[in-house]
Amino acid sequence: MLRTLTLIGALLFALNVQAKVSPEEAAKLGDSLTPVGAEKAANADGSIPAWEPAEQRGKLSGEYPSNPAYDAEQPLYTITKANMAEYAEMLSDGHKYLLENYDTYKMNVYPSHRPVKFPDFVETWTKWNATNCELIGTDNPDNCKIGFTFPIPQSGAEVVWNHRVRYRGSDVVRYNNQMIVQRDGSYQLTKIIEEAKFYYALPEDKEPVPLMKDSGLFIKYFSQTLEPPRMAGTMILVHERAGTGSEGRQAWLYSPGLRRIRRAPAVCCDGPYEGTDGHQFYDQVDMYNGVMERFTWKLLGKKEMLIPYNSNKIASKEVSYDDMAAPFHLNQDLPRYEKHRVWVVESNIREGTNHTFHKRRMYIDEDSYYPSAIDNYDSRGELMQLQEGHTIYAYNVQSVGGVPEVIYHFNSGRYFVTAMANEDAPNDFSVEFRDKDFEPSAVVKRATK
User: Fold this and answer.
1) Fewer CB near the terminus (10 Å): N or C of the chain?
2) To 10 degrees, the CA torsion angle through 240, 241, 244, 246?
């Protein structure tokens, strides 16, 4: 039976510092819980299986996500407008909206699989974090190391921090191609290539970089727009740290028109991401990122939900961008949905702050801490958007991401698709960057070559 959504009142602290757990609680990791804190066991009827950790396989470059056994499966059932009431408890508000408003929208539901396994050294430090790591306010993890900061989360903010610092390899180059799809299915394509270095994800033979209050550098990121011509050459550089304001994020923008690099204080929150024509905010990259201080974060509990998962087909080189785009929504023959347990986190705007969204409800996979779906609401409490992360497990690097990610804009009937690499190349985790590759001077050198 579907577990009902429950408030975990005892886990919501009134104090500004979220406490680490006891050694007795931490001992559950690797026992009744997976090494990162998910329930190992199947659900009552077996429709969500027990944890089935996969072995690492494949090369660090040139590998699109795949699992031949999963990819050959057929749907168990299909949800449409006609039968959606039978599954309403397992659907986000955004998915209900799409089903109710578009006769062409459907959700093909497949057998559920739980292959997510992180590297051993990530799991080791995750258990260490359980009894040592604390969260000060919403934006300052303290005394935390590699891996998941709060594997036995006691607040919504802790669950979201697990997402923000989840393991994604140590260095990567990837295409982050994007399209704005109009109501008739036509689209505008933007090609972007990105480079990132994850400072909390060092190889296991090195001492992990700690996340400390107002000092924890955890990502350096660079992106360059390749197409269309009017935007080509635009570059963004970001240094991401724990904390807020300039301590939490430093960003620079290079404009080819001005031929100079400048500090970009507005790379935050609901500022429109460069080149998206307002269809993606900065804090919607990777489903959610950046400072959290503008919101309260409630942990509502766990729930069984239908979410995009093991989405190898839609992320593959066999699918073109033309295949993907359709009027009002993705070509729904391509996505794969499965039943999984998710953490449900609700964020509400704090008094005295501002944001286009006054509430978010996030559905965060228990095995990976990746938010596979987010409902976004406006100041009147009305649903504005659905964000959908088509979750894949990268067997080669043992990490999880969304390929692609989609933002449905219900006020316009348009949608935005990002994190596409189908027609270019898969993520390359074999690279090794230097610190100086992510300095403003390095960006200027690239631009003036």
Assistant:
1) C
2) -70
Helix locations, 146-193, DSSP H: 156-164
Please give the structure tokens belonging to residue 2: 């579907």
CB 306 within 8 A of CB 339: yes
Q: 3-state DSSP call for residue 39?
A: strand
Q: What is the pTM of this model?
A: 0.93
- Collapsing DSSP to helix, strand or coil, 286 comes out as coil
Task: Output the CA torsion sign for 363, 368, 370, 372.
Answer: negative
* DSSP β-bridge partners for residue 407: 387, 416
CB contact at 8 A, 98 and 332: no
Going 69 to 71 to 75 to 79, the CA torsion angle's sign is positive
Give the Cα separation of 405 and 113 in Å (integer): 20
Beta carbons of 343 and 314 less than 8 angstroms apart: no
Of the candidates 308, 304, 302, the residue with the CA atom closest to the CA atom of residue 109: 308
268 SS3 class:
coil
DSSP assignments along 213-257, one per residue: TTT-EEEEEEEEEEESTTTTT-EEEEEEESSSHHHHEEEEEEETT
Q: Which of 99, 132, 89, 128 is nearest to 344 (CA)?
A: 89
Distance (Å, rounded) from C-alpha 364 to C-alpha 61? 28
pLDDT in tens, the chain (449 residues): 434 443 333 333 334 566 689 999 999 999 999 999 999 999 999 999 999 999 999 999 999 999 999 999 999 999 999 999 999 999 999 999 999 999 999 999 999 999 999 999 999 999 999 999 999 999 988 888 888 999 999 999 999 999 999 999 989 999 999 999 999 999 999 999 999 998 877 665 555 555 655 557 789 999 999 999 989 999 999 998 887 766 678 899 998 888 889 988 778 899 999 889 999 999 999 999 989 999 999 999 999 999 999 999 999 999 999 999 999 999 999 999 999 999 999 999 999 999 999 999 999 999 999 999 999 999 999 999 999 999 999 999 999 999 999 999 999 999 999 999 999 999 999 999 998 999 999 998 887 76
